[in-house]
Write a structure and sequence with these properties.
globular; 5-stranded antiparallel beta sheet; single chain; two-stranded antiparallel sheet; 78 residues
């Protein structure tokens, strides 16, 4: 389980972005979280833990591997 304040990386339109994990809810096996600075019109996006290594990455190097794969991007719209 991620910890509050952990820095994670994500891709938006091919750019590697980073932010700190906030608002963790759930248990060790299945939880949701938000990333500080990644929000839409109605506030922070809620991200499921199953998105780790799919659209949210634990290292910049991991994110870089998927920089040219739009299926691995987080959405950039409201």
């Amino acid at each position: 389980m991620l910890k509050e304040g952990t820095v994670v990386f994500f891709l938006i339109n091919g750019y590697i972005m980073s932010g700190r994990v906030i608002n963790i809810e759930g248990n060790d096996e299945d939880y949701n979280f938000s990333i500080e600075g990644y929000a839409g019109c109605s506030g922070p996006h809620i991200i499921a833990s199953r998105q780790i290594h799919r659209t949210v990455f634990l290292t910049q190097e991991e994110a870089k591997k998927y920089k040219n794969n739009p299926q691995m991007y987080l959405s950039s719209y409201c």
